[in-house]
Specification:
The complex is a heterodimer.
Chain A: E1 5-9, E2 20-23, H1 25-31, E3 38-43, E4 46-54, E5 62-65, E6 69-70, E7 83-85, E8 89-91, E9 94-96, E10 99-106, H2 109-114, H3 117-127, E11 132-133, E12 138-140, E13 147-156, E14 162-164, E15 170-178, H4 179-184, H5 201-213, H6 215-221, E16 228-232, H7 239-250, E17 253-258, H8 259-262, H9 269-285, E18 290-295, H10 297-300, H11 310-325, E19 332-338, E20 356-359, H12 365-377, H13 387-393, H14 399-419, H15 428-437, H16 441-444, H17 464-479, H18 481-486, E21 494-498, H19 505-516, E22 519-523, H20 525-528, H21 535-549, E23 553-558, H22 560-563, H23 576-589, H24 615-630, E24 634-640, E25 656-661, H25 667-677, H26 689-694, H27 701-718, H28 728-736, H29 744-761
Parallel strand pairs in A: 1-5, 2-4, 9-14, 10-15, 16-19, 16-20, 17-18, 18-19, 21-24, 21-25, 22-23, 23-24
Antiparallel strand pairs in A: 1-7, 2-5, 3-4, 3-8, 6-12, 10-13, 11-14, 12-13
Helix pairs in contact in A: 5-7, 9-11, 12-13, 12-14, 14-15, 17-19, 21-23, 25-27, 27-28
Chain B: H1 3-54, H2 68-124, H3 134-161, H4 167-182, H5 188-215
Helix pairs in contact in B: 1-2, 1-3, 1-4, 1-5, 2-3, 3-4, 3-5
The chains are: A alpha/beta, B mainly alpha.
Chain lengths: ~750, ~220
């Protein structure tokens, strides 16, 4: 019985160039071929045309293959290590060819320039003698010759069978290209799918394609297409991948430089390297469209004269000269990517050098969804994975972060699979785990990042109206954006929580951040102030920039009265830095507009659907659009005990719109607070929380917590660390020695503040 | 046609091919041997030409002979031309060897194709003490033909690439020529002939046996 699966083993060196494939005798018998008849073998993603021969050892179960005539994918691939089924081999008939059209691939550019057509035709005819040919296959030349490959473009009579070249066959040379060009145009390579780049990709493709496809039109119109494109954007957003995707889609060659590779040790070496690379690019641009990609150009080309660094300046000058030489007669386009456009020499950014500048910002919600869909297309996701929800919670994530997120989720699935051997499908829980590990890179280097334990609204007792107010301001615009747009409302920019100390202001903000799921930044005085003049303002401006990049985000300024002063109240000199920080904050909260480099999204898209389309999806997309409209901004939440110390300009509507008084807890609130604080403490049977609440007027939340701790400690002390429960008398004993921090005087102060603010507004 | 008869026909064709190959191999080797001194004289001439070009005759003792330089160069160029012509002739001989071998091998294959169905695959790969299998022998013939073809092509490309201006190439020609002979396995043809020698001898003997059998 013949075994139908064969192992693919390497070829005998004797057989190199013989176009033979060696099979076992039973395989030959099953195929029903004679010795030396052509056979098509489909393996490793391509197919090879060979002649069938028996193996020298006449063993079955092995296959050796000579890829003299094979499709492009098999060239250079080592043919081994795979199992091949007999069904992958097919005997093909053989005919004599009348004419054949070939593309000759020569070894280097000099040969191409010096080649004579007739001589080349003779050479090709000699090389193809006695070789079985098939259209769209490439014949490799195994010995030393100026021709490296011959690609068969078409045969006459046109057939899928194997053809044999005779002395009467006519050979037509369609094209001559070099080996590098041939290798770089990998037409069957999978095109890179990039999500979220729909606005940026078509213009770039146009820049590359137009001069190649319509040179005469452009010449008559007197147009010269832009020769240089500068891609600007934060790191990880997809600039390098974009260039690769565009070149693959257009089918042009990509030559890359990075700044570090160009620099040399000896004086003048870097300039020489640069000239050489540009010459290489120009040479290959003569054969087809070519893109020269300079990555991180700000390291190669900083501002001249900034540091007085003469070698750097020379390199910059060399690059400027070379870029001027990239004329419109060659098909060379120079693309560059950078994160810091302000560090580039301004002479580089004028028309004639880098004409076009493309900003790629942090992806918006739509773009994030598109990226996630693209990345997740190749992964086995279960049906429960909700991509729109993922896109919502990953605000501030760039493309690289999203890819890392998916990879981390896959790793979680693999870890889970190791424990129980089920199919590794990625579930929503994997994504939630991954979200904890992968943080947005724009916020990673932030001063203001803070890790906090999530808190639910329910863990805060009482304070229902305050909670409602916070929910209205923070959560509702995100959850019901259409309602807000319908009523013409915008999101409040700032919320000020004030009240006596220890009344759960910070906890409330933590609960708000947990529930709404936007990025949370928290800044305190210690982070902000620095001994260098101007540093604090820079830090604050940077934090705001990062918050905007990761919008929607919540910026929490705790104890804001210690960070900012008031311009009207103190005229002392020592408060200079406070005034400056205050001015920065005022400008950021209510400033004039976004810097150009902070633009996100690229304008409204056209109608999303071309007629018809599912209604539900249309509503979903419309919802996403609404969310885009409402969520652009940052909400600043501030907490303070001394609102009277704040500047009036801060407290006006438009900056801190909502000023919320957080009162000390009333009786019900105290009961729920006590319940929460004693949830982990074992209580005696006689403890009644309502009674305790009644006996503790004016106690703030912090006071109650401290009281519970005191009672527990007392219980331990009395029983010499043997206690198992805290009894009522422990509570009463600690109550006697406990004084509340809040007095009526304090409360009057706050209430009067409240009312005076009201009167001032009226 | 019976299997045995078909096999006999194919064996006869193979035997004839091997004899032809044997003759052609001798011609090939002889031609290559003739080429070697031609190549060395060519490189010699090239060296002389190079020396001639780099020398300014007016600075030497030969300045009294006014047209010495041009006459010397003319003579050298003519000699180079003659040697190249002779090389061309040898290349023609090689080409004839290649063509003869090709035709013979093609004829042999054709005979096999005609009888392939009668012989069947099993018999074609069967090796015996007296003769190698048909598949093996066909393979050897193909290898020989491919070798001749490739080598001839390489040498022709070499000769085409040099020109009278490029003297350094001519200088290196003999080395490149030697490299071509080393391409692949230089002993392929003698090896194959050795392997097939027993087969050729036994066929010749059995030819008499067959006649004897048919007489009986």
């Amino acid at each position: 019985m013949a075994r139908t699966a064969m192992n693919l083993v390497p070829l005998d060196p004797r057989d190199l160039g013989s176009q033979r494939c060696r099979l076992g005798p039973s395989a030959l018998a099953s195929l029903g071929v004679k010795l030396g008849s052509p056979v098509q073998v489909s393996v490793l993603g391509g197919s090879a045309l060979c002649t069938a021969w028996p193996r020298t050892d006449l063993a079955d179960g092995f296959l050796q293959l000579d890829t003299k005539c094979a499709t492009r994918d098999l060239i250079g691939k080592p043919c081994r290590g795979v199992r091949v089924n007999l069904s992958q081999l097919k005997a093909v008939p053989c005919i004599k060819l009348r004419a054949v059209q070939v593309k000759v691939i020569v070894k280097d550019l000099n040969t191409k320039k010096r080649a004579e057509k007739t001589q080349l035709k003779e050479l090709v005819k000699d090389l193809l003698r006695n070789v079985y040919l098939c259209p769209r296959h490439v014949v490799a030349v195994t010995f030393d010759a100026p021709v490296a490959f011959i690609e068969i473009e078409g045969v006459e009579p046109s057939t899928h069978a194997a053809g044999l070249l005779t002395s009467k066959t006519a050979v037509r040379l369609m094209d001559i290209i070099t080996v590098e060009h041939f290798r770089s145009i990998d037409s069957k390579a999978p095109s890179l799918c990039l999500g979220g780049m729909d606005n940026v990709l078509p213009p770039l493709k146009e820049i590359l394609n137009l001069p190649f496809h319509y040179p005469k039109t452009l010449a008559t119109l007197g147009l010269s297409c832009p020769r240089g494109v500068l891609l600007v954007g934060p790191p990880g957003v997809g600039k390098t991948s974009l260039v690769r995707a565009v070149t693959r889609q257009v089918g042009s060659r990509l030559i890359g430089i990075s700044g570090a590779a160009v620099h040399g040790a000896r004086p003048g070496e870097s300039e020489g390297n640069l000239r050489r690379i540009f010459q290489q690019a120009r040479d290959s641009a003569q054969e087809g469209p070519c893109v020269l990609f300079i990555d991180e150009i700000d390291s190669l080309c900083p501002r001249r004269g900034s540091l007085g660094n003469a070698p750097e300046d020379r390199l910059v000058a060399q690059l400027l000269t070379l870029m001027d030489g990239v004329g419109s007669e060659s098909q060379l386009v120079v693309m560059a990517a950078t994160n810091r456009p302000q560090a580039l020499d301004p002479a580089l950014r004028r028309p004639g050098r880098f004409d076009r500048e493309v900003f790629i910002g942090v992806p918006t919600l739509e773009e994030r969804r598109s990226i996630l869909e693209t990345v997740g297309a190749g992964m086995p996701l279960t049906r429960e994975v909700d991509v729109p929800w993922l896109a919502e919670v990953t605000s501030g994530y760039v493309g690289a972060d999203l890819v890392a997120l998916c990879q981390e989720a896959a790793m979680q699935a693999v870890r889970r699979r190791c424990q129980d051997s089920a199919d590794p499908e990625i579930r929503p829980t994997d994504f939630r785990e991954a979200l904890r590990t992968v943080h947005p890179s724009s916020l990673r280097s932030s001063v203001a990042r803070i890790d906090f334990r999530p808190i639910l609204w329910e863990t805060i007792g009482g304070l229902e109206d305050v909670k409602l107010k916070l929910m209205q301001c923070i959560e509702w615009p995100m959850k019901f954006p259409d309602a807000f747009v319908r009523m013409g409302l915008t999101r409040p920019k700032g919320i000020l929580l004030y009240g006596p100390p220890g009344c759960a202001k910070t906890t409330l903000v933590r609960a708000a951040a947990t529930s709404c799921g936007c990025s949370f930044l928290s800044l305190s005085g210690a982070d902000l102030f620095s001994p260098f003049v101007g540093d604090s303002e820079k830090i604050l401006a940077q934090v705001f920039r990062q918050a905007r990049a990761g919008a929607p985000s919540l910026l929490f300024l705790d104890e804001i009265d210690s960070i900012l002063g008031s311009r009207s109240q103190d005229a002392k000199d020592g408060r200079g830095v406070h005034e400056r920080v205050l001015s920065v904050l005022l400008n950021e909260m209510d400033g004039i507009g976004l810097a150009v480099t902070e633009r996100r999204g690229a304008g409204r898209k056209g109608p999303l659907h071309e007629g018809g389309g599912q209604l539900a999806e249309a509503r979903d997309d419309a919802k996403l659009e609404f969310q885009e409209v409402c969520n652009k901004d940052v909400i600043v939440v501030a907490a303070t005990n001394r609102p009277d110390l704040l500047d009036d300009a801060l407290l006006r509507p438009g900056r801190f719109d909502q000023i919320v008084y957080v009162p000390p807890p009333d009786e019900n609130a105290r009961v729920s607070a006590l319940r929460i604080f004693t949830s982990v403490t074992p209580l005696g049977a006689d403890v009644c929380l309502q009674e305790l609440a009644r006996q503790t007027p004016n106690f703030s939340g912090a006071d109650l917590q401290s009281l519970c701790k005191e009672a527990a400690l007392l219980a331990l002390q009395e029983s010499e660390l043997q206690a198992t429960a805290v009894n009522r008398r422990h509570f009463l004993t600690s109550l006697e020695s406990f004084k509340p921090t809040l007095t009526d005087g304090h409360l009057d102060f706050y209430c009067s503040l409240f009312s005076s603010k009201r009167t001032s507004a009226e | 046609m019976s299997q045995k008869q078909a096999l006999l026909d194919v064996h006869q064709a193979l035997q004839k091919s091997f004899q032809v190959v044997q003759q052609q191999e001798r011609v090939w080797a002889d031609t290559l041997a003739v080429c070697t001194p031609l190549l060395s004289s060519l490189s010699n001439l090239a060296e002389q030409l190079q020396a001639c070009k780099s020398l300014t005759f007016s600075n030497t003792a030969f300045r009294d002979f006014p047209d010495l330089e041009s006459r010397l160069k003319y003579k050298l160029n003519r000699a180079t031309g003659t040697v190249l012509e002779k090389l061309g002739e040898q290349m023609n001989v090689l080409r004839k060897v290649r063509d003869t071998t090709s035709n013979q091998v093609a004829a042999c294959f054709q005979t096999y194709e005609q009888h392939a169905d009668s012989i069947g695959l099993t018999l074609a790969v069967e090796r015996s003490a007296l003769s190698p299998s048909v598949a093996d022998m066909l393979e050897w013939l193909q290898d020989i033909e491919r070798l001749y073809r490739n080598q001839y092509l390489s040498r022709r490309l070499l000769l085409q690439s040099i020109s009278a201006e490029n003297l350094t190439d001519i200088h290196a020609l003999s080395q490149s020529w030697g490299r071509v002979s080393e391409q692949g396995d230089p002993d392929v043809v003698p090896d194959i002939l050795l392997k097939a020698s027993f087969f050729m001898e036994t066929r010749q003997d059995s030819k008499y046996c067959k006649d004897y059998e048919s007489e009986l």
